[in-house]
Amino acid sequence: MGGYHRGEIAVQERAGFARQAGHAHGAIGNTVPDVAVAFLADQPHLVVGGTDERGRVWATQLTGEPGFLTVPRPQTLHIGALPPPEDPLAAVLAGAGGGSELAAGAGTGGGAGSGPQPARIGMIGIEPATRRRMRMNGRAVRDGHGLRVELDQVLSNCPKYIQKRDHHPVTDQGASTPRTAVDSTELSPAQQRTLRAADTFFIATTDDRGDADASHRGGNPGFVQVVSPRLLRWPDYAGNAMFLTLGNLELNPAAGLLVPGWETGTSLHLTGSARTVWDGDEVARHPGAQRLVEFEIAAVREVAAASPLRWSAPAFSRFNPPTAG
């Protein structure tokens, strides 16, 4: 499991949180506690981040009936689902291989003639109704109609910035929208409106060795700024002082975003590159922001009917700062 990598350490030191990060590191393990086994078994979805066959980083979600996430042993997670063909990570996860030479790099135990290389993935099990979340990173291999993930990192995160929602599955399949995917290289006007109204998204990153991570970002509607059809900006609020996401970006700017359509089941996937903005008047104009993150879009994929789940209107977190005017 090891300690923080050099990107995380660099960001912790620049932010002035090196001491707090040292204390927080004790919360990172590589096994799933018993209480978390029960939590995962109750979940109908899992956010996953990883690298595709072209080396692009994406975030997506897998869904299933409660019980599709199981822990056969403390360091192994079994996911009883694979993404549909329209998903940007479908080929990599269904093929149980690394998305690029970087993602399948050293330390996986594979090699020529030794079978498929594991896919490095980051995951979040999140329960909006209780504002609980659990973060896991590891190496995934195709296992029947699902994935077996050997875990490298396991940690729980605080409930800050999670909007409370309840879910229910779509019951009238005849009225459901056919699953379709639309690709582009910039945001359409409708997609820009979706992002301006968003209160939640998920971000996937990798370090310079290809180890992946997936993280949650939340705030009041308007916290994501659409600067242009190919550029987004959002505030980085106070968190757990580990800086796992920004630490990865320090070493590798590639990133992917998932914006769930909570009420429609549509998934908006973005891939591109991100950078941290540390100083200047722009940061000060965002209430609660300690830094900003700017994301340059390289590709967009919108998948209609990506999820069978529908969610209630949100109850916003009391921790959400007001948005910039």
Query: How many separate helices?
Result: 7
Top CATH class: Mainly Beta
Largest sheet composition = 8 strands, antiparallel
Q: What's the CATH H-level superfamily name?
A: Electron Transport, Fmn-binding Protein, Chain A
Tell me the CATH topology.
Answer: Pnp Oxidase, Chain A
What value does the Rg take, in angstroms?
18 Å
Low-confidence stretches: 98-113
Coarse structural class? alpha+beta
- The shape, in one word, is globular
Query: Roughly what is the average pLDDT, rounded to an integer?
Result: 92
Topology, number of strands: 17
Strand content: 35-45%
Helix content: 10-25%
Q: How do the helices and strands follow one another from N- to C-terminus?
A: HHHEEEEHEEEEEHEEEEHEEHEE
Number of domains: 1
Protein name: Pyridoxamine 5'-phosphate oxidase N-terminal domain-containing protein
InterPro entries: Pyridox_Oxase_N, Split_barrel_FMN-bd
Organism: Streptomyces microflavus
Pfam family, one: PNPOx_N
Describe the structure.
16% of the residues lie in helices and 38% in strands. With 325 residues, the protein is an alpha+beta fold. It has one domain (6-106, 116-311): Pnp Oxidase, Chain A (Roll). Strands 9, 10, 11, 12, 13, 14, 15 and 16 form an eight-stranded antiparallel sheet that branches. Strands 2-1-5-6-7-4-3 form a seven-stranded antiparallel sheet. Helix 1 (6-15) crosses helix 6 (244-251). The protein starts with 5 loop residues before the first helix and ends in a 14-residue tail after the last strand. 41% of the residues are buried. Residues 167-190 are annotated as: Disordered. Residues 189-286 form the Pyridoxamine 5'-phosphate oxidase N-terminal domain. InterPro entries: Pyridox_Oxase_N, Split_barrel_FMN-bd. It comes from Streptomyces microflavus (Streptomyces lipmanii).
